[in-house]
Design a protein that fits this description.
4 helices; mainly alpha; single chain
């Protein structure tokens, strides 16, 4: 394994333990894919630093246990914001544009 991969893996592991952010967010911050972050944390880290891996595994397991709640919240927010936008758009269209007679 290349040194830069080992260094990245340890940095990502430490960052996860310090911030408890999701794999998706960490991937964006480090400029790599979610798959790379996941592979670094679950396959490479146990070989490089088993103690850090145990801390990371605990956080990843917690994220996995609550992912259905996060997904539900995201969906709720999405549909609430869409409803707010559609109501606002309809109200503005009715107020701003006069009704045109049908020919």
């Amino acid at each position: 394994m290349h040194d830069y991969i080992k260094e990245r893996t340890i940095k990502i592991g430490r960052h996860l333990v310090e911030t408890k952010k999701t794999v998706r967010i960490i991937a964006k911050e480090f400029g790599v894919s979610k798959s790379t972050v996941h592979k670094d944390l679950t396959e490479r880290l146990p070989e490089i630093n088993p103690e850090l891996y145990n801390q990371v595994k605990y956080i990843l397991d917690h994220h996995k246990a609550i992912r259905h709640l996060r997904g539900g919240e995201a969906t709720k927010l999405k549909y609430n914001s869409e409803n707010d936008l559609s109501t606002t758009t309809t109200d503005n269209q009715e107020q701003d544009q006069p009704i045109k007679p049908v020919s």
